[in-house]
Design a protein that fits this description.
Elements lengths: L5 H21 L7 H31 L5 H5 L32 E2 L12 E6 L6 E7 L16 E5 L15 H11 L6 E5 L13 E2 L3 E2 H16 L9 E6 L1 H12 L6 E5 L17 H6 L2 H7 L7 E6 L5 H10 L5 E6 L9 H4 L3 H11 L23 H4 L6 H4 L4
Parallel strand pairs: 4-5, 4-8, 8-9, 9-10, 10-11
Antiparallel strand pairs: 1-2, 2-3, 3-5, 6-7
């Protein structure tokens, strides 16, 4: 029975109801020695508590898409077949243009949000370069199947969740397709292909979006294997023009890191409540050593870049949870790198979907502009969330890391 399926939810509801009724019916009817009666009543109470906790967990998990299946929950899933040393550029000096095309079979995806605003499709991708074997979800915009667009190549945005988190979260909890489809139809937002690859590749740890020889090549999975599969199977624009990546929490850190490290693969990145130093997620593999932290810190990568990368970054967050990290990048960015930072007041919510979900329309308007899509209804001056760098001290910004309080949060 699927962890996120409707049958399991209904089973949890039914068992909870039974657990509430049992004590009412049997409490005074249990016969036998005192020890037997006490044990029977204790078991009923424990059963009631267990079913209640299970029901709450199922509802929270379905609402936030934290764990996609039983393997993710129990920590038994491993999607890494091999993790060769692929060098600094993450390709192992392989000429990607010479690799044969990756032709994939797709099927309708199941789960919350997967059939709203058009069917989301899923495929199992064996990454030829990364050594990762995992699922990838793809949604095509309304115009994709229209005759007038049959020769058009579409821009692409990769969507990354937090940790723990399911690749389905953007379609389920974030309601991305329901929010964007009407705007795409009306021309207010570009018709993007949305791609959500599995982000959690190893049991019990966040990969930190890093390449770690012998352990995982998460960076290559996201920035090489997944984009190649998309361009081989869909009418997608070639990288980097028209390619963006967006994430929240741990996925936000990953999105910015990918764009800064690979401006030849991405033109823009969106970070919601992210961080720069991988220590922002203490369960990140990239936080396990100073060398890994430095190699996967977008602040340091940007500061040390020989030539400023031609990328655009959008970073939003509350004070102590993403905002300072964004301002740090803004302060060191040099043209052609552009950094747009949005301050969110505490009243907007915490480190939850309630904060990130309402930002979807705004960040995709920004992506429409930055990825070079010509949409006359959107102007450079329209920014409903505003921009602020006030209230930040030099000490807070020097490290390029959010505050300790924000660093301990995860989603």
């Amino acid at each position: 029975m699927s962890l996120t399926g409707t049958p399991f939810l209904y089973t949890a509801v039914a068992l909870t109801i039974v657990a509430l009724i049992l004590p009412l019916v049997l409490w005074s009817r249990i016969r036998g020695p005192r020890a037997v009666r006490v044990a029977g009543r204790a078991l009923m109470l424990l059963f009631a508590q267990a079913t209640a906790v299970t029901l709450v967990f199922v509802m929270v998990n379905n609402q936030n898409n934290l764990y996609d299946n039983w393997a993710d929950l129990l920590g038994t899933g491993n999607h890494v077949q091999q993790a060769a040393d692929l060098g600094k550029n993450g390709t192992g000096n392989i000429s990607l243009n010479r690799l044969p095309k990756v032709k994939q079979a797709f099927s309708p995806a199941n789960g919350p949000g997967m059939r709203s605003a058009g069917q989301v499709e899923v495929t199992q991708l064996k990454g030829r370069v990364s050594g990762v074997n995992a699922e990838v979800y793809v949604w095509t915009p309304p115009q994709y199947k229209e005759a007038a667009y049959r020769h058009k190549k579409f821009p692409v945005v990769e969507l990354l969740p937090g940790w723990p988190g399911s690749a389905k979260a953007w379609f389920g909890s974030m309601h991305v397709t329901q929010q964007l489809e009407p705007l795409m139809k009306s021309g207010r937002i570009a018709p993007f292909i949305l791609v959500a690859p599995r982000y959690n590749l190893l049991a019990g740890v966040d990969t930190g979006c890093a390449n770690i020889p012998g352990t995982v090549n998460a960076d290559t999975w996201l920035s090489v294997d997944v984009p190649k599969m998309v361009t081989d199977n869909f009418r997608a624009q070639p990288a980097p023009k028209g390619w963006g990546v967006a994430g929240y929490s741990a996925g936000a850190h990953c999105a910015v890191k990918l764009a800064v490290a690979h401006p030849d693969r991405y033109q823009a990145a969106v970070s919601m409540s992210g961080y720069n130093d991988p220590i922002g997620e203490r369960n990140s593999l990239a936080a396990q050593s100073v060398a890994l932290r430095e190699a996967n810190n977008p602040y340091l990568l940007l500061r040390k870049a020989a030539t400023p990368p031609p990328i655009a970054l959008y970073l939003s967050g509350e004070s102590g949870d993403g905002y300072q990290a964004g301002v740090a990048l803004e302060q060191i960015a040099k043209a052609p790198t552009s950094v747009h930072v949005v301050f969110l007041p505490r009243s907007d919510g915490g480190h939850t979907m309630a904060l990130w979900r309402p930002q979807v329309k705004t960040v995709f308007r920004w992506l429409t502009l930055e990825l070079g899509q010509n949409h006359p209804r959107i102007t450079k001056g329209s920014d409903p969330l505003g921009h602020s760098t006030g209230g930040s001290t030099h000490a807070e910004l020097a490290s390029g890391t959010a505050s300790r309080a924000g660093a301990t949060r995860k989603r």
